[in-house]
Amino acid sequence: MDLTFLERFLWSYIFLALIMIMGIALYGIIFRPHIIKKIIALTIFGDVVNVFAIYIGFRGGVIPVPPVYPTWNVTAGTIREMLSRSVDPLPQALVITAIVINMAVTLFIVFIAIQTYRLYGTLDARKIKELRG
Amino acid sequence: MRKEDIALILLMAAIALIAYLVAYYGITGPYPFYQLRTLGAVYIYVTLLKQSGLWAASPEAVTAILWDYRGLDTVFETSVFFLAIISAVALFRLTPKYEKEYKELGKKVKDTGLSLIVKLITKIVLVMIIAISASIALHGQLTPGGGFQGGSALAVAPILLIIGFSVWYVEKLGFTKTRALTLRTIGLVTITLIALIPIIYSLITMSGAYILQNQPKPGAPFSYPERVLGVFSGSLLFLNIAEYLAVANGFLVTFILLAIPEVIYFKIIKEERGGE
Prior knowledge:
The complex is a heterodimer. Chain A is built from five helices and no strands. Chain A is mainly alpha-helical. In chain A, helix 1 packs antiparallel against helix 2 (about 35-55) and helix 2 packs antiparallel against helix 4. The N and C termini of chain A lie far apart (about 65 Å). The model of chain A has no long low-confidence stretch (mean pLDDT about 85). By secondary structure, chain B is mainly α. Chain B has one domain (about 60-270). Chain B has helices spanning about 5-30, 40-45, 60-70, 70-90, 95-110, 115-140, 145-155, 155-165, 165-170, 175-205, 235-260, 260-270; strands at about 225-230, 230. A two-stranded antiparallel ribbon of chain B has the order 1-2. In chain B, strand 1 (about 225-230) and strand 2 form a beta hairpin. In chain B, helix 4 runs parallel beside helix 11 (about 235-260) and helix 6 (about 115-140) runs antiparallel to helix 7. Chains A and B meet through helix 1, helix 3 and helix 4 of A and helix 1, helix 2, helix 3, helix 4 and helix 7 of B.
C-alpha cells in the first residue's frame, strides 16, 4: 500500500519541526550562559528525543490503535486485529524509562544549581567557570 | 571571528543538513513504518494469550513489557531515580539545630499562602488529583497508565499545597520529610520483595523460577494470582502500587526540601565558612 503525497508531507513536516526544536535546544544548552536556561533547554532536548522514539513505533497505512486489548476474551480474531492495527509497544515502554531517568537527572542538576547559587551567588556559567575551589 | 560564532555556524549547518536529508528522504524515499516490528508483534501476541506459555495476564502490552518482559530495566531505572533523590536529600540536609529553627520559623510566620479563594479551590482540586492519580496507578495493568505515571500525577498535589498554603502546612498534615522517606523505602523494599519471591519459592520447592516472574512459564511453575477481585492482576498490580508509593513520596521529599526557606541554608553556609 502506497501513501499519498499529503501523508508523506505531513510525516516529514513533523520530523522537520522536531529537528528544528532539537536545534533550538542544542543552541540553548551550548550558547546560553544562564544555568537555569541550560536546564530548560536540556529538558526540551530530552522531550524531543522521546517524541522521536514514540514516532519510531508509529504505523502508517492503517488507523493505528494503542497496544491495549479492548477485550479480555482473546480469540484469533482479536489478536489478528491487534497485530494489524496496533502501534509498537516497545518504544513506548522504553520512553517511560527514559522520562524517569531524564526527570531524575534534571532533579539532581536543579539541586546542584541551587547549591551553586547559595555558595557563589551566581548562576552565570561564564562567572562560574572562572571560580576556583 | 570568535570561537562561539564558528561553533554557532557549525551547529546551524548540521541542523540544516539533517533537516534537508529528512525532508528529501521523507518525501521521496521508502516509508518504513507500515509493518509492526517482530519484537513488538511478539509482545502484543503473547501478552494476553494464556496458551502461549509466556503471557503476562495483562491486556496492556506496555505495562507488561515494563514490569514483566523487561522488568529488570525498570528496577534499575527505579534505582537511578532513588539515587538522584537520595543525593538531593544529602545535599539539602538540615542538622538537628537547623531543623528546630526551621520548625520555629513556621510557628512565627502567620497568614502564609495565597487568598481564601485559592485555598478553597486547592482543597477541592486536591481531592480530584488524588482520585485520578490512584485510578491511573491501580488500572495500570488494564488501561494506559501505571505506577510511575500515577505517582507523577500525585506529585502535583504537594506543589499546590506548598504554593497555596505553606510548606509547614504540608508538614502539619502529617506529610513530613522523614515519613515520606520511610514510605518511599517501603515502596522500594516491596518492589525488591516481589522481584525475589519467585526465587525464594524456587529454592523451597526445588523448581525453576525467574527473577521478577509474573505468570507460570515453561519449567517455572511459580505464579502470582492471575486475577484479584475479578480483574487481571499478576504481579503488575502490586508492582504498580509499590512504584506509585515510591515515586509520589520521592517527589514529596524533594518539593519539601525545595520549599524550605533560603534563610536557613544561608545560615548553615555562613556557619560552615566560619561566620564570614
